[in-house]
Design brief:
Blueprint (H helix, E strand, L loop, with lengths): L14 E4 L13 E6 L1 H7 L7 E12 L7 E8 L5 H10 L20 E4 L6 E7 L6 H16 L6 E6 L2 E2 L15 E2 L6 E8 L8 E6 L4 E9 L7 E6 L4 E6 L10 E9 L5 E9 L1 E4 L1
Parallel strand pairs: 2-3, 4-9, 6-7, 10-17
Antiparallel strand pairs: 1-13, 3-4, 5-6, 7-8, 10-11, 11-14, 12-15, 13-14, 15-16
């Protein structure tokens, strides 16, 4: 099992072998594992893939849309600990481990020193405490609060959210706190490829694996990966346990350094039947275990 932090907020990539090519996916006995999901996750992404063993939690986080002010969109989140999940999700949202592609319709309107703490739910109310020493554009602040509030409101015990900034209640906060506003949530649309990364073990000169990541769990109909000259990336192909990344153990790993351009062509479908056919060229980003 290889562990790393992905753009999708902490997915663990326990691997399921695909015999030589991703469109030859093997089935495995997953009866001993269970992934529970919030209603928000089921609405946006369908039933989560079930793990081979242990328990996990399928949740969502929200980010504002850059091309549609006032709208937010869901991202899938997988957790392995039931405790304090809102805090874990929000802190991952503001961390630098969340990498959005340059053409993403989402963006992070946070000051880079933003800190978040979360109070326990009391009588259906949860309070989010934000701290920053930087000036913060009011529009960006409002979009952040909308996204954070909806993230917390996916949990049934939370009926309203209150927010403080630097220990003071937000001046424009509704008297009753923030409540679920489904009209501000945009549909996630078709599956998209979002990142190509190489994974290095320590200071080794070549990556141990390549990750071609999608924005949600998907099933593969067909998939191919080539270099800039159109040559297939030879190696063993896998699918991550939460089905968000095609994982390649390349036969010649030294050929794939940080910045190497690769080209993926895919035909995938998500659990709600949304099918995406496309192709994309990206340069490898380096991650280190």
């Amino acid at each position: 099992m290889f562990k790393r932090t992905l753009w999708l907020l902490g997915m663990v990539t326990a691997l399921l072998l695909l015999a030589g090519c991703p469109d030859e996916q093997k089935t495995t006995d997953q009866s001993s594992g269970y992934v529970s999901a919030t209603e928000a996750y089921l609405t946006h992404f369908g039933k989560p893939p079930q793990g081979k063993e242990g328990r996990a939690y399928a949740r969502v986080a929200y980010l504002p849309m850059s091309n549609d002010p006032g709208k937010i969109r869901a991202l899938p989140v997988f957790l392995y600990d039931e405790a304090d999940q809102v805090t874990k999700i929000l802190r991952r949202l503001i961390s630098d481990t969340l990498i959005l592609p340059s053409d993403s319709e989402l963006y992070k309107p946070f000051p880079n020193d933003l800190q978040v703490t979360v109070s326990p739910v009391e009588d259906g109310t949860q309070t989010l405490h934000l701290q920053t020493a930087q000036s913060w554009d009011r529009t960006a602040q409002e979009l952040t609060v909308q996204a954070f509030a909806e993230t917390a409101l996916q949990f049934p015990e939370t009926r309203r959210v209150r927010v403080t900034l630097n220990d003071k209640p937000l001046p424009d906060m509704p008297a009753e706190g923030y409540q679920h506003q489904p009209d501000m949530i945009d549909d996630v649309g078709l599956p998209q490829l979002v990142l190509m990364a190489g994974i290095w073990n320590g200071e080794e000169s070549a990556p141990a694996e390549l990750l071609i990541e999608f924005d949600r769990p998907i099933r593969l109909n067909t998939f191919s990966l080539t270099d800039a000259d159109g040559n297939k990336v030879a190696g063993d192909y896998y699918l991550s346990i939460f089905q968000m990344a095609v994982v390649v153990h390349p036969q010649e790993p030294e050929r794939y350094q940080a910045g190497t351009p690769l080209h993926a062509v895919w035909d995938v479908i998500d659990d709600l039947g949304r099918r995406s056919q496309g192709e994309k060229s990206m340069s490898l980003i380096r991650f280190t275990h």
